[in-house]
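Handout, page 2. Input:
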Amino acid sequence: MSISQGWLLGVEPRKKAPCRSDVSRDRKPSATMKNSADIPDSRQTGGGATGMEATGFTHPAGHRALRRGRHSLAGQIYLITFVTSNRERLFDDAGNAAIVARASEDGRLWYRSRLLAWVLMPDHWHGLVELGDLDDISIVVQRLKTNTAKALRRYRSDGVPVWAKGFHDRALRADENLRAAARYLIANPLRAGLVTRIGDYPYWNAIWL
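Output:
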C-alpha cells in the first residue's frame, strides 16, 4: 500500500502517537497545489547526511548565506529542517522523542502560523509551515526550538544542548503539490529504514488526518 493510499485515504492504520493533538486533527489546509513536489531527501542512514548538508547548512558560512537570502511572506508554505546539537541521536530515546513531539504541537507556538505536517527523526526535525500574518519564519523556528528544548530539559534535567544553531528553509513553489510534499516528508522514517510501515512510527502528524 502506498503512502498516499494510506494516510490520505485512511486505509492504513497507524499506532496512536503520544504527540497527536485534537486541535491539529481539526485544522484544514488553506492551499491547494498542482504538481509533484521535489523536496531534498532527508534520509537517515546511521550517522549519514540529511540531504540539506549539500547546501552548506551545517557550516557557519552556510548559515550566514541562508540568512542573507531569507525572506518571510505571509501565506507562503516553507519546508523547515533543523538538526540536533552535534548531530546527537537524541530521539532514538522514546521518552525524549515523545516530549519533543508533544512540544512541537503546543498551540501557543501556532497562534499566527500553522504547522501543516512534521516528522521528528533521531537527530533532526522536518516540518511544513504556513507562515501567518505578522510572523517571521526565523521567529517561528526560534519559538519552536526554544519550546521543544525547554520541554526536553525539564524531562532530562541534565542541561544537555538540544538543537544546533540555525535552520534550513525552502519556500514551496506555487506549482508544487502540498500533499505530495507532506507525504514525502512523512515518509522519511521509511527511507531511513526505521520502520517498514509509516503507521508504526509515532513521531509525526499532518493536518489532513
